User: Fold these one by one.
Assistant:
Number 1:
Amino acid sequence: MVALTFDDGPDPELTPRILAMLDRYGVRATFNVMGYNAMRHSDLLRAVVAGGHELGNHTWTHQDLAFQSTTSIRRQLDCGRAAIQRAAGVRPRFFRPPRGELTGAAIRAAAELDHDILLWSVTRGPAGVGTPRAVAAGAVAFAVIGSEQRDSPDEIPPLGPVPVPQSAFAGFRFPPAVIVVAVRWYLRFGLSYRDVEELLAERGVEVDHVTVYRWVQRFTPLLADATRPCRHAVGDRWWVDETYVKVAGRWRYVYRAIDHAGQIIDVFVSPRRDAKAAHRFFERAIGAAKVAPVEVTTDKAPVYPAVLEELLPAAWHRTEQYGNNRVECDHGRLKARLRPTRGLKQDRNAAVMIAGHAFVQNVRRGHTNWPLRNRRPGGWPSRSTSCPWSSDAARTTQASACAWAGAMRQRPST
């Protein structure tokens, strides 16, 4: 008996061919999936599950566990599991350590997540081991999707060398630690770009405020995407409302939704307040949360009943007086953050800024699985920061190497 396993997927070119071949011969296999790839290709992962195949957790970004701390290993497994479960709708059963490097911390983390550890005895390729006799005697066969070498033309052809994705920080003069801290300060606190410039200068980092602006616009969406798989599951009771901000002298409407725990589900900036904007916002929110709410509380705007009847016919639409106070009070956090700025000049910049504020608020309120909460040097718990920091440059550099920068640097390996 031979058990087939495929690692590192799903791959948009190879995975459909593998599924077609397995279906042709009536064979079931185990796909050990990277969480990063699962979020990028969730449709392929659902196709794997629909084909009757099993899923395994292959960590978030395929890091060498032998060189990772216990916290980092647990984070890799936990984020990988959450991403797979969110993308496929099923919990992965197995855990396969990248490159077979099984450590004591990895074994403990797998046991805590109720994963069965799955290794292999036969593989293909230049580093392959095993013989046809060994396979016939029974083995666990292992293939890497995207780098497997094949001989028969009837089988899946090789893709050739797969380029390693370049770090998002490549080409920037300043180290990732400085960039991440500057972006976080601007999004979290009521600071202008010149305020961030002054704070960095006090710590020995000479950078122009325009550079800080470019960092915020460039890295805010990337940081939000890096933490998305580790967000807590969104609740099924939503409070939805719209507020307004002025962009280049014109009013723009900001649709926002929170759940019962105060987690910001999604935000959407629109030049109009109409049924089309509300419809698009709900589509985005449902797609991002991957949850269909059973209860939606809004104000008495006339566009909501028709939109909810079309998208969420089974949801209970509540419009009673004062019922929406929860989200209306939450608007105040956004308005307080925008007040110190000298105004928003472009729609795109406004969307990045408002989405970044929502992302930071979720991290600050503890709606992620990452262990970002730290203590200040004096031992007092920090209620307003997600990463440690200090006034001297050495502590600043050390503190900013937190999970945000780590997520940006840890790109998937091939």
Number 2:
Amino acid sequence: MSFVDPAFDTEGNGTSADDHPLGDIRLGERFIADAYHALASAGYLDNTVFMITFDEWGGFFDHVPPPHVIDDTDPATVDHTGDGTTPTDGQLVPDYTQLGFRVPTIVVSNLALPRVVHHGPFEHTSTLRLVESTFGLRSLTARDANTEDIGQVLRRERRPAVPPGVIPVSSDVPGPASDAAAVCSASSVQSVSPAPVGRHQFAEAHVLHKPGFPTGAGMVGFGQEFRKGQSG
């Protein structure tokens, strides 16, 4: 099992490849393309699962309330040095049974069926559960023992590999010509999305509150407002 991380040390000047604010997301696309083709060209995707996911949701609105999970973490055994001093939902110590908002996850392997959308619900320890079930390892905590195994999206029979040329290589991804051009600012040249391929009709979206309105507390305030509406 390996963790492959992009460059984080240049987040401050906006040239990192981790899709973090200030940086150009096309650098992140190039990073994923390089990692994919390193595996695919070596034939490793026949017995390797390449998972692309994120550590948090980026602050975007999500209409699905985050669920709770089974977790036996004892807060007294956790080092809370550096934690914030502003209570969230009236408490400083986090509720370890409470998940956050959803994050995207893509599973790439010749053991994975194409275009499968699975509702899980999966969470980050679902990857750990896959490792444990694959190699016959015992669970580390109650959290991974009770989570859904993301291996549900895999099958035992290998499918034919994706033909060369179908997945763009990093040089096919248009991007900044220099580090200076990668920094997002008011003078940046914006990317232009291609025209939609389909002709689907979408319902008009409801207008959301502006950040911090009406409670002045951003998403925390929205969550409080949402729960009031649910209980009312």
Number 3:
Amino acid sequence: MSSQKFHCIPQGNPLYYVGYIMLKKNHLKLVFGLLLGAVFMYFAFRKVNFAQMWAALKSANYWYLGLALVFLFFSHWIRAVRWRYLIAPIQKVKTKHLFSALMIGYMANTFTPAHLGEFLRAYVLGRKSKIKASSVFGTIVTERIIDIFTLLFLMALTIVVFPFPDWVTKSGYATFAGVVILLVLLIVMKRNRDASLRLVNKLLKPLPKKISSKVDGLFHSFFDGVVGLKNWRHYVITAVLSLLIWAGYGAVLYMSFYAFDFVSQYNLPWTATLVVLVITTISVIVPSSPGYVGTYHWLCQLSLGLFAVPKSEALSFAFVLHGINFIPILIVGLIIASVEGVSLSKAPPPSLAEENGTLSEEGPGNGSGH
């Protein structure tokens, strides 16, 4: 496999080798995800009336989607603000730089498997802030744990007013168990850093010396990125910001309900927003195709069916909602990547192979990362 396959990360950086290994190992996961997406897309289209789908798309009031976009980017900006608090113990970083890295990473996630866009996100910020990208990646892991706990909190809140199907509740339990295990593992490894690194070194022995030494460096920097917040106020602020992020995502859904007139036509209660939000988010957690195509559509259709929304109209809604959540991010991410000089089509020159190296950039003389 050529370095062209994972060219956005400089070859001298530890995360390059992890990304290389992950991408190599994720070929099967990508094929599995595509097949899984196709299966769920089949389920979504089964017994659907295409005339009703088209009628729902034609009759929608797309002005509401403008408001949905406002709430979407509001949520992402708040996410960048929260990230500023998570990374503050390492270094103070401007919110605009965090937002740019976030958009580029999310853009890459739309067409790469296994959230590999998070590696790119770490490097974009590493280039701007001069923080080791593997340390940045540690804060991204922390961020994801917070997101899952927030989602589980919303699920618990929703169960009080709406009885989820058993499979959703069991998925929540499984997710909770998984994230608790991950959190405990991170805490134990952080507190027993030397022992953890010795274990990592033993596991890396079968790998070539060049790769094992780079990955070992990654873990050192990663542990530097898994840090507590500066003070108790930051914990409170982070919790409030997390709720605001998901409230924004809920507002995107609610505006979309109004766009398709589901609120008045099917008497959707406010709890429908939480139910659809929780269930569709499962598509992000389970193995899936890039962009969650198929799983997202079927789960959205299924969740709306709990409120007696017909399959055909629900699927039209799912396609529009999926488009709102991904197409603007793809466009904005590509624009920011172009402005930042991040090339998604060229391999980095050898001179960029440094621990805090920059990404591949357009044109000569741009290796400084500014």
